Amino acid sequence: MMNTESMDECILVCVYYGPNGERLMRRGGKIAKMLKCPLYVLTVDPQPEDEWDIEKTHYISVWRKIAEEIGAELIEKYNEKRPIVKVICDITKQKNVTQIVLGQTAQSRWEEITKGSIINELLHKLSFVDLHLVSVSRELEVQEGFYEKGIRAYLMEVNEGHRLCFNHTYLDKYEGIFYKEVGTDFNNGVFKFMMGNEMVEVPVIDDHVKDIHKSIN
């Protein structure tokens, strides 16, 4: 349940699909916990829900779990045709938001937020709100550029660790998203999945994950 002990402050975190979403939510969660105030997480998509691909569905599932963990209300706006700034402003006024956490996410609509024009527009329209712009690390941007689009995959426990497979069976230990390295004929890349309430990323080499606890984060 959301902690509403202090109503003087209210945090809104804006996220879009990608690995930076969890980081932004937890950053907002820390601020809200420190201020003992309400926390909202907003995601916007121009597509209707029934047109999502597996990657979007995966991230939304992860965010819902994290939102519950950190005591946030996740606001999902789909089939949304309004400009991003308009949506942010409307939610800000509806929820009496005083601080907004924004992220620079590679290859997404939120990337526009890092450009001065939209920042200036938010500052102009929401002069009473503090903006926190969280940048993505260079390593993450480079890493994303070397992988193909993610696909649903599973890890099966074997003697030497875990083996990657793409057909679901009762032997599967973990379900997640596999990102294959560009330019390789073998299944080398990164497997992302939920372990408890944490998003874990492990390297895949020739269909195998040797150490499931050795995250590359």
Summarize the structure.
The protein is 28% helix and 29% strand. It is of the alpha/beta class. Keywords: Kinase, Transferase.
Describe this structure in words.
The protein contains five helices and eleven strands, in the order βαβαβαβαβαββββββ. By secondary structure, the chain is of the alpha/beta class. The chain folds into two domains: 130 residues, Rossmann fold (3-Layer(aba) Sandwich); 64 residues, no CATH class. The strands form two sheets. Strands 10-9-8-6-7-11 form a six-stranded antiparallel sheet, with helices on one face. A five-stranded parallel sheet has the order 3-2-1-4-5, with helices on both faces. Helix 1 packs parallel to helix 2. 29% of the residues are buried. The N terminus is likely disordered. InterPro entries: Histidine_kinase_KdpD (IPR052023), Rossmann-like_a/b/a_fold (IPR014729), UspA (IPR006016). This is Histidine kinase. Keywords: Kinase, Transferase.
Q: Gyration radius, to the nearest Å?
A: 19 Å
Strand order of the largest sheet: 10-9-8-6-7-11
**Whole-number mean pLDDT:** 80
Count of folded domains: 2
Helix content: 25-40%
- Report the top-level CATH class of the largest domain: Alpha Beta
How many E strands? 11
What form results from the Cα inertia axes? elongated
Cα(first) to Cα(last) distance is 29 Å
Q: Write the element-wise H/E pattern from the N-terminal end onward.
A: EHEHEHEHEHEEEEEE
Parts with pLDDT < 50 across at least 5 consecutive residues: 1-6, 105-109, 138-145
Number of helices: 5
CATH level-4 homologous superfamily of the largest domain: HUPs
CATH architecture title of the largest domain: 3-Layer(aba) Sandwich
Structural class: alpha/beta
**Could you name the CATH topology of the largest domain?**
Rossmann fold
- Specify the biggest β-sheet: 6 strands, antiparallel
Strand content: 25-35%
Organism: Paenibacillus anaericanus
Keywords: Kinase, Transferase
Pfam families: Usp
InterPro entries: Histidine_kinase_KdpD, Rossmann-like_a/b/a_fold, UspA
